[in-house]
Write a structure and sequence with these properties.
The complex is a heterodimer of chains A (132) and B (374). Chain A is α+β, with helices and mostly antiparallel strands. Chain A contains three helices and nine strands, in the order βββαβββββαβα. With 374 residues, chain B is an alpha+beta fold. Classes of the chains: A alpha+beta (132), B alpha+beta (374). At the A-B interface, strand 4 and strand 6 of A face helix 2 and helix 8 of B.
């Protein structure tokens, strides 16, 4: 299973999580292409520190465009083990590739069963279609 | 608040051309077409075309129309000649700002002199109510709200003159700043004024609603080779912020007086009588307690409306009223009301942005000034 939109799980608030069944228990988190397009002109992003704990549905950072600030929520609970180094200084990366090149944080999951409660790609696409 | 959702004469065009729409002051308005930054920079570098039909347009006919307006506007109206436009405020009895407006004195092709008041969309209903007793005092003045029967389009940016040169008679291109005339665009009646809300040179046009799409498309077509693009309300806001222009509901409120807002120039007190005049005459002599200023922030994180401001000792000194990342300066900028002692250009202050502190420096407005003025 590779990191591509079809293989990810989503929150309705447009965060994605990639959790390969490789026994590491480490999930990669980012925001979807739709979210990036909606925000349009990204100017600033605040990310947490390595070692911090996050809960599912809890805010882990914020992303700011010229006009608006949006919180970013963690799809799953766990401890943050890695932050994408330098991504906040290269936010344009998210415009070209919000997935492989534009991931944001990695989390050691405390409860991988939470993944089952998230939207799969088809359900997320359906949600986007419903919201026009 | 109006509950009914209005469309402008151009709303359908915006939707058909992929604009992101949102409700603003009861109107379905384009927020952006391609993106705020791209539209902002297109306006600064070439020109932008804006649908501003949501603005209220109120027409006053009759020989005493000037006398009526003289009662309610902080700027002198009685000496206005056809072709003049003035920025003015409407204040209440205690000198608080009810709206900021443009008043134009115009001459119709048949030689009739009339006045046009352009008011903020969000304030139109309030201003119409405010005018009612004055209209009752001047029953001979004919009042018409022509907002729905007309459309208003702005073209702003350094290429505005060249673009309009393809579409309008030479007399229009020769209009001075804050001058207006009634003319035609491709034989459609059109009021043109050399005014705007972006800090750029340009024009604002008022046309009949049924002609709006034609005129809009003519502007875009004439501007295509210059890189002219349609611009939504998102970039209109960042453009006016860079230009240091206040926006009602943010910098202007009923509890703000013209002097705090830095709009003392719009109050003509001497030998006049208008609502709020006596209070404003007193205020004009007092030292200001708070002042509208510009702020430039460190980093890339923008302060937003309601962000609290502190001096370096941590004392509260004021509040941000508008803030954004500035596409031209590539820095976060803001406008704020600060206490007099803190409102010193160059002074370093602290701004609380959602719980964390950014450093900021007080700056005189505007942040952006175009190179050539008319």
């Amino acid at each position: 299973m590779t990191l591509q939109p079809e293989n990810l799980k989503y929150l309705p608030s447009h965060e994605w999580v990639y959790a390969p069944q490789d026994g590491s228990g480490i999930a990669t988190i980012g925001i979807s292409a739709f979210a990036v397009a909606e925000l349009n002109d990204l100017v600033y992003m605040a990310l947490p520190r390595v070692g911090q704990q996050v809960e599912a549905g809890q805010e882990f950072g914020e992303v700011e465009s010229v006009k608006a600030v949006s919180p970013m929520y963690s799809p799953i609970a766990g401890q943050i083990v890695e932050i994408h180094d330098g991504i906040v200084d290269r936010l344009e990366t998210l415009n070209s590739d919000p997935y492989v090149e534009g991931w944001l944080i990695k989390v050691k999951m405390s409860d991988p069963s939470q993944l089952d409660g998230l939207l799969d790609f088809a359900a997320y696409q359906k949600l986007l279609a419903q919201n026009g | 608040m109006e509950t009914q959702e209005h469309k402008t004469a151009l709303s359908d065009w915006h939707v058909q051309n992929g604009a992101r729409m949102a409700s603003f002051a009861g109107y379905q308005m384009p927020i952006q077409y391609t993106g705020i930054v791209a539209e902002h920079l297109a306006t600064r570098q070439a020109a932008g075309v804006f649908d501003i039909s949501h603005m209220g347009r109120l027409r006053f006919d009759g020989p005493r129309a000037d006398q009526l307006l003289e009662q309610v506007l902080t700027r002198r109206v009685l000496d206005m000649q056809p072709g003049q436009v003035r920025y003015s405020l409407v204040c209440n009895e205690s000198g608080g700002i009810l709206d900021d407006v443009l008043v134009s004195c115009l001459e119709s092709p048949s030689g009739k002199i009339y006045f046009l008041l352009v008011v903020n969309a969000s304030n139109k209903a309030k201003i119409v109510r405010w005018l009612a007793p004055h209209l009752a005092d001047y029953p001979d003045v004919e009042f018409h709200d022509v907002t729905e029967s007309t459309a208003m389009i702005a073209i702003q940016g350094p290429k505005s003159i060249e673009v309009c040169g393809k579409l309008f008679p030479a007399s229009v291109l020769g209009l001075g700043y804050y001058r207006a005339r009634v003319t035609e665009q491709m034989s459609k009646p059109c009021i043109v004024s050399r005014t705007g809300y972006t800090g750029e040179d340009g024009f604002e046009l008022i046309v009949r609603a049924e002609d709006a799409t034609r005129v809009w498309e003519n502007l875009l077509m004439a501007g295509r080779s210059f890189g002219v693009s349609p611009v939504g309300l998102g970039a209109r806001d960042t453009l006016r912020l860079e230009a240091g222009m206040p926006l009602y509901g943010h910098e202007l409120e009923e509890n703000i007086d013209p002097y705090m807002a830095g709009l003392g120039f719009a109050c003509q007190i001497k030998d006049r009588n208008f609502v709020g005049r006596d209070v404003l005459a007193e205020r004009s002599k007092e030292e200001l307690a708070v002042k509208r200023v510009g702020l430039v922030l460190e980093g890339r994180r923008a302060a937003r409306e309601q962000s609290a401001c502190f001096d370096m000792a941590g004392n509260s000194i004021g509040t941000v009223t508008s803030g954004s990342f500035s596409p031209t300066l590539q820095k976060p900028i803001a406008m704020a009301y600060l206490s007099r002692h803190a409102a010193i250009p160059g002074a370093e202050i602290q701004v609380d942005i959602r719980g964390s502190t950014s450093r900021a420096w007080v700056q005189e407005l505007p942040f952006y000034k175009r190179a050539n003025t008319v």
